[in-house]
Amino acid sequence: MSGHSKWNNIKNRKGAMDAKKGKVFSEIGKLIRIAVKEGASDDPASNPRLRLVLEKARAANMPKDNIQRALDKGMGRGAEGRQVQEILYEAFGPGGAALIIETVTDNPNKMSSEIKFALSRHGGSLAGPHAAQFLFTKENVDGSLQFTPNMVLPLSEEDALALENLVEAIKEVEDVESVYTTAG
User: Fold this and answer.
1) Residues paired with 178 in a beta bridge
2) Hey, which CATH number is domain 85-181, 3.30.70.980, 3.40.50.170, 2.60.40.420, 3.40.50.620?
3) Which of the four, 13, 28, 90, 167, has the lowest number of CB atoms within 10 Å?
4) Whole-angstrom Cα distance, residue 6 to residue 105?
């Protein structure tokens, strides 16, 4: 009678709920980091956007440690006093679509291996410096730099679906801020 253990059922339900919470917490953490960067302050009294995001974090029952870690990363303070770095990764995905991946991390070695792992699992490959960046134009939109493709690459339905899965996998990595692609 496999699958009828009460303990196993509880474990599976708790695991699914924890995965959902983790995804919500990582999204809120990104919003906190962005609000701190744009407001140039980790004080909610002087940063109204941060205040709204912190209310959202409290409503989701986000632990104070996670909130503090996100505030520290947004202000450029990493774990154990390490400095936070912004790193751009360039990659190519299914159908030859170019990707630019923006990250903010205090551990570049770990981030590099996590990005490589996500790319390899979903048909992508990491490119060298400036291999894909020339396909994009940097634009300043509302005080933040964004990359827009110079030319949109049409993809087949199959490649578009594979690229969408790849982008989702990359966005699930904790320190990834945003992903830009040339796919249309």
Assistant:
1) 102
2) 3.30.70.980
3) 13
4) 40
Residues of the chain predicted below pLDDT 50: none
Q: What would the 3-class secondary structure string for the chain be?
A: CCCCCHHHHHHHHHHHHHHHHHHHHHHHHHHHHHHHHHHCCCCCCCCHHHHHHHHHHHHCCCCHHHHHHHHHHHHCECHHHCECEEEEEEEECHHHCEEEEEEEECCHHHHHHHHHHHHHHCCCEECCCCCCHHHEEEEEECCEEEEEECCCECCCHHHHHHHHHHHHHHHCCCCEEEEEECEC
Instruction: Find out whether 144 and 130 touch, Cβ atoms under 8 Å.
Output: no
Would you state the pLDDT for residue 158? Answer: 92
Rounded Cα–Cα distance for residues 74 and 33 (Å): 4
Overall CATH class of domain 6-77: mainly alpha
What is the location of CATH 3.30.70.980 in the chain? 85-181
Question: For 5, phi and psi rounded to 5 degrees?
Answer: -80, 130
